Amino acid sequence: MDYNSLSSKLSSAAGYLVDEAAEMDFPKLASDSLTLLGSCDGLVCLSDYDKSSSYGADDICIWNPSTKEYKNIPTPPNSEHSNMDQGLYGFGYDDKIADFKLVRVAEIPKPVGSSDGCEDGSVMQILTSISDTSSEVKASWVSSHSVVQIYTLGSNSWRTCQCQDMPYYFPDGIKPGVLVNGALHWYAVDKREYYEAIISFDMTNEIFKEVARITGSMLHPVVCDYSIDYNNVSVLGGCLCILHKTYGVKVDVWVMQEYGVKESWTKKFTITQKSITETGRLKIVCEFQNNEIIFDTDTCLVYYDPNNNIDKRLRIHGASMYQGVEQYVTSIVTLGSGTYVEKPKTRKRKSSEI
């Protein structure tokens, strides 16, 4: 969708049907629970991670929709024991070595009282089925520690960052990192002091650092429902942005006008439209020249014009399921796999069946 096409077709009061969308065949993974782990320079990273199951090996592939080439990458170490409800993934490019990287942070259980040299220990809950025929589960609590793992496309292998302190957990679950100032960013909560913060990961030096602590008006009341009232990290005008959502009431849009300077946080505007406030998933997909914004929500894309306080739901023609959105650019980057997405073969009907 380009700006001129979108703006000319949004003059009506009703929602807009996006009929320019192109349907594509995509790599088939082990299950249909696809999750977008990120998009970078024309490559898309996909996983079949199922949020309904806290544990299980991740089936991950990198795909170039332009060339249809895809690459199934090795299973991350310890993925069958990790809890990704507390972790994250991030996909990006390392300019120094001219290669793509996928970073993974996961909570790994360890025996209570054990020591692995890291000081980021926390407690996590494990749910196990009582029997194969019962829907009941047994809850138990164990000590855990965070593991930072990095996959490099060129070597087609994972390695573990040795004991970088990771004193945060990520309440948003698996969300692609937000690229600002050359680094990926996520919303996090400190495990020890329980304060909220934005942390970043630099793909070149492979270091996490805290960019900003969330304070003042960007914090939610202690008595709120954190399952629906929370902050989302986005980018607006090239700056780090916080979408401070109070479900069904409003979304305050805060922008860090000078990167890393906490005094530069500025509230740009407040949104009250239900199409944007009544959603779990909320992020800025893109913005146009007159400050119009496209939001990604649970059920659809939403166009919002802050200048005139207008919102429009954007429905994609022919789309029955909606898993999320990432920006994408055409690319001829090769993955070196030699495997390509093929259209499903249709069985020819016999003349007796016609």
Summarize the structure in words.
With 354 residues, this protein is mostly beta strands. 3% of the residues lie in helices and 43% in strands. The protein has two helices and 24 strands. It has helices spanning 3-9, 274-277, and strands spanning 16-18, 35-40, 43-47, 60-63, 69-72, 83-94, 99-110, 122-129, 137-152, 157-160, 168-169, 178-180, 183-190, 196-202, 207-213, 231-236, 239-246, 250-256, 265-271, 283-287, 293-296, 301-305, 310-316, 339-340. The strands form five sheets. The protein has a five-stranded mixed beta sheet, with no helix packed on it. Strands 2-3-4-5-24 form a five-stranded antiparallel beta sheet, with no helix packed on it. A hairpin with a 5-residue loop joins strand 4 (60-63) and strand 5 (69-72). The longest helix has 7 residues, at 3-9. The radius of gyration is 22 Å and the shape is globular. The protein starts with a helix and ends in a 14-residue tail after the last strand. 31% of the residues are buried. Residues 51-56, 114-121 and 123-129 have low confidence and may be disordered.
Quick structural gist:
This protein is mostly beta strands and 354 residues long. It has helices spanning 3-9, 274-277; strands at 16-18, 35-40, 43-47, 60-63, 69-72, 83-94, 99-110, 122-129, 137-152, 157-160, 168-169, 178-180, 183-190, 196-202, 207-213, 231-236, 239-246, 250-256, 265-271, 283-287, 293-296, 301-305, 310-316, 339-340. The chain contains 2 helices and 24 strands.
